[in-house]
Design brief:
about 25% helix, globular, Helicase, Ruva Protein, domain 3, 2 domains, 5-stranded antiparallel beta sheet, alpha+beta, 4-stranded antiparallel beta sheet
Length: about 290
């Protein structure tokens, strides 16, 4: 699933190619792609027609468009394979293009989703902590690249948690945008094992970890994100190349870039975690 850097790459593409255009028509070709919009595809298409796109916004992994209707947002769920592609109207339509919006600028915004886990939904905008966000995103915490991200406040929340620090990093209500890839990368950079109990880490260590989260996401953003297959692309269909710089994630048995020990792979929350056994020693099990 795309994480913050990948979603931000898509957001920037939409800001460049879609913002300012008027939606002339919308065609919904697969009902699953609008299942989160309960009134259905015809209603979504009717509400979008005639609206001018004012901005492309993001919080963590959540992406939305705003319009000249100040109370409405189009929330885009990329899911596992969702793509927001900008194409000329006469370009061949992709096999899995389940939603096609034609804009006054002569381009089409196509939602392509091979696995149909993602989709579009219209949502009212609400004010949360001085920021306008879609109602469905109101519970999501700010992300580390947000100018108003409060690291001190997040550290206080994390420090109070009696669960594994990686589990806390993945909690989108605490800090948003972090998924499995960048959690592992930040933990490797901070030399912290993901199974360490958050409350046992010092506040300076937690600040250091958040600094590494911000740094690895910024590095990934400059590389266009991480693409492990052809399903994550930007609005022009291009893949990111941060995979080449990964130090932990996906590198089982390869040498640690810091100390040379083979990277280990462990099960965690029904997924895989990657870490260095020398740089990130596992915590001792607590006595019952």
């Amino acid at each position: 699933m795309p994480e913050l850097p990948e979603v931000e790459v898509v957001r920037r593409g939409l800001a460049e190619h879609v913002v300012g255009g008027v939606i002339e028509s919308v065609t919904v070709k697969h009902p699953r792609s609008v299942r989160r919009h309960l009134p259905g595809g015809d209603d979504l298409a009717a509400q979008l027609a005639g609206l001018r796109v004012e901005s492309a916004r993001r919080r963590g992994k959540f992406l939305w468009l705003t319009f000249d209707d100040p109370d409405l947002a189009l929330v885009v769920h990329l899911g596992m394979s969702g793509q927001m592609l900008v194409r000329s109207a006469d370009a061949p339509v992709e096999k899995h293009a389940h939603i096609v919006a034609t804009l006054s600028s002569g381009v089409q915004l196509r939602f392509v989703d091979q696995r149909t886990f993602g989709g579009w939904a219209l949502n009212p905008l609400v004010e949360v902590d001085g920021t306008s966000v879609p109602e469905s995103v109101a519970h999501i915490g700010r992300d580390p690249l947000d100018p108003r991200f409060d690291a001190d406040a997040v550290v206080r929340v994390v420090k109070a948690k009696q669960s594994e620090v990686k589990r806390v990093l993945l909690d989108q209500t605490v800090v948003s945008g972090i998924g499995n890839i960048y959690a592992d990368e930040a933990l490797w950079r901070a030399r912290v094992h993901g199974e360490r109990i958050a409350a046992t880490l010092t506040k300076p260590a937690l600040h250091g970890l958040l600094t590494e989260v911000r740094a690895v996401m910024s590095d990934a953003l400059r590389a266009g994100g991480t693409s492990f297959d052809a399903l994550y692309v930007n609005v022009n269909g291009q893949s990111g190349y941060f995979e080449r710089a990964l130090a932990a994630y996906g590198r089982e048995d390869e040498p640690c870039r810091r100390c040379g020990a083979p990277i280990r792979r462990e099960k965690f929350m029904n997924r895989s975690s990657f870490s260095c056994p020398r740089c990130q020693p596992k915590p001792r099990r607590r006595a019952n």
